Amino acid sequence: MMIDPLGIVILLGVFAVLIIIKLPVAFCLAFSAFITAFYMNIPISAITQKMVASLDSFSLLAIPFFILAGEIMGAGGISDRIFNLANVLVGRVKGGMAMVNALDSVFFGMISGSAIASVSSMGPIEIRMMQKQGYPTPFAVALSCTSACIAIITPPSHNMIIYASIAGGAVAGGVSVGKLFMAGLIPGYLLCLLLLIYCYIIARVKNFPKGDTFTFKQSMKIVADSFLGLFTVVIIIGGVFAGIVTANESAVLACIWALFVALLVYKGIKVKDLLPLLKKTLKTIALVMTLIASAGAFGFMMTTLRIPELVASGLFSISNNKYVLLLLINIALLAMGTIMDLAPLILISAPILIPVVTSPLIGLDPVHFGIVMIFNLSMGLLTPPVGTVLFVGSAIGKIRIEETIKALLPFYVVMFAALMLVTYIPAISMFIPNLMFGK
């Protein structure tokens, strides 16, 4: 099929107009696809079939269980225990409470897989404790928001599963969710390490206090108390790493374990609380699946109009240097991340960019690029006008968004530095997957 410039204008123009008038993204994607199909005389049944086919992915089964496990553990009393454990590990260092903030976000993020869940559950505890020790509230909020984004990069990130389902149609043989999970570990820990270093440096400069100290007996009690909750991480990562279970199976096991710990051990929830948790989970799942189905229709129209080919030829006309091209792609993703949420951007941009980055000229592994894309777009959660983590964190800290943004400026630099390392050093992402699964 020849390139239809008017069709491209209709598809992207209608989508842009609907976004501007603040229609939900899923409807923007679906309506623009249907209108363009009508213009091109493509049967509407073909579009609806593509929407249904987008949901016909075995890897998507993991999303509902990971979401439910995160909801159960978030409501089941694990937040306080994770905070106490992080406090035992790094709290006594100068600026220790800031370091606790970064470290407990890693722990909780590897259970919830959601930045919003992380900042919502851990944020109130982190910000309150930092305020008590004299940290400026904007700094505490900015750190809480930034560290919450680690949940997006490490398993069991729901966005990795979404990327894998989309990449399956763009890459021969598909992309393994298990590989993506393992590929996100070192990048997530790298961001945490850089945050810890920054917190230590700023604590020395501004003379922030040391955190709490514990006796050996108190420390062992806290570690023991948090062990069962953190064992969820062992189930998710250890099971996949050892090859005992698939990502889908680990999601189900994590859900069962979370229910056991929260209901019978920590007793943070009761049987009567399960129905509201299930309703909340179902609402989230419905939103995610509707978005994926709509993106399937939109992606079909983009492919029909040969938009990925146009983007590739446009990028290659600017430069043939892979490092320059990767920088341009990162800048484009960062710009788009400021105006659209993470999951829709993955669904829209992955089918366009994967053929570009996997071409012989650039030669990126699609698993590596998945981590680069997710890491990159996680920064959009901290930028207006649609930075959901930014808004939630500011609301929790009870400060103006402008104050949070100003405090976030050095954290943007830290995240961008980590992003560049992950982009240009493939081993950071690919060492563990290659060790486990082979090249």
Q: What does the average pLDDT come to?
A: 86
The SSE order reads HHHHHHHHHHHHHHHHHHHHHH
- Number of helices, where a helix is a run of at least 4 consecutive DSSP H or I residues: 22
Which value, in Å, is the CA radius of gyration? Answer: 22 Å
Shape type: globular
**Number of strand elements:** 0
Strand content: under 5%
Protein structure class: mainly alpha
Brief description of this entry?
It is built from 22 helices and no strands. It has 439 residues and is mainly α.
Helix/strand layout:
Layout: H1 5-20, H2 25-39, H3 44-54, H4 62-75, H5 78-90, H6 96-112, H7 115-132, H8 137-148, H9 150-153, H10 158-167, H11 177-183, H12 185-206, H13 216-241, H14 247-265, H15 274-304, H16 307-318, H17 322-337, H18 342-357, H19 366-378, H20 388-397, H21 401-424, H22 426-437
Descriptive account of the structure:
The structure is a single chain. 77% of the residues lie in helices and 0% in strands. By secondary structure, it is mainly alpha-helical. The longest helix is centred in the middle third of the chain and has 31 residues, at 274-304. The radius of gyration is 22 Å and the shape is globular. The two termini are 36 Å apart.
